Amino acid sequence: RGDNLRIYPGDGIKLIASYLPPRSIDEIYLTFPDPFSNDNQSHWRVIQEETVGDIANALKVGGCFYLATDALVFDEWTREVFARVQDKHREEVGTSCWEEIVPCPDRRSWLPVISKYEEKGIAEGRYTMCGCWKYVGVKG
């Protein structure tokens, strides 16, 4: 499985938005991003409506976006952003282009390790929340 794995040592959002061909990626993982916990910092969060659009453009139909975070504010924010994107798309074309996978697939199948950061969070009383959204394509 590792023969098609690439690691990009830079801003992954710029890579997704500007360099990847459309419909070229099977899965995108976002693990423990900076949550920018204060409401006045929400514009710095990596997940925004535009970012979700860029992720949709990069994923193949049926591809998945996975999230792992130990920040409740970021988990809630991501779910709200995906819901807004789904609502807008539903209003425009009558269907949603995203499907949240509930429950999220077992994280051991897509994130089988626990990082030092995650270990530290667990020791401090935080727990990992995972989410998964499947890009089902543009219909309508």
Q: Could you give the topology of this structure?
A:
Elements: H1 12-18, E1 25-31, H2 49-58, E2 59-69, H3 72-93, E3 98-100, H4 116-123, E4 129-135
Parallel strand pairs: 1-2
Antiparallel strand pairs: 2-4, 3-4
Task: Give a quick account of the main beta sheet: strands, pairing sense, barrel closure.
Answer: 4 strands, mixed
Identify low-pLDDT runs: none
- What is the share of helical residues? 25-40%
Structural class: alpha+beta
SSE string: HEHEHEHE
If strands are numbered along the chain, what order do they take across the biggest sheet? Answer: 1-2-4-3
Give the terminus-to-terminus CA distance: 35 Å
Q: Please tally the helical runs, counting DSSP H or I stretches of 4 or more residues.
A: 4
The whole-number mean of residue pLDDT values reads: 92
Strand content: 15-25%
* Rough outline: globular
Radius of gyration: 15 Å
Number of strands: 4
Task: Write a compact overview of the structure shown.
By secondary structure, the protein is of the alpha+beta class. It has four helices and four strands.
Looking at this protein, list some descriptive labels.
alpha+beta; single chain; 4 strands; about 140 residues; 4-stranded mixed beta sheet; 4 helices
Write up this protein.
The protein is built from four helices and four strands, in the order H-E-H-E-H-E-H-E. Strands 1-2-4-3 form a four-stranded mixed beta sheet. 17% of the residues are buried. The longest helix is centred in the middle third of the chain and has 22 residues, at 72-93. The protein starts with 11 loop residues before the first helix and ends in a 5-residue tail after the last strand. It has helices spanning 12-18, 49-58, 72-93, 116-123; strands at 25-31, 59-69, 98-100, 129-135. The protein is of the alpha+beta class.
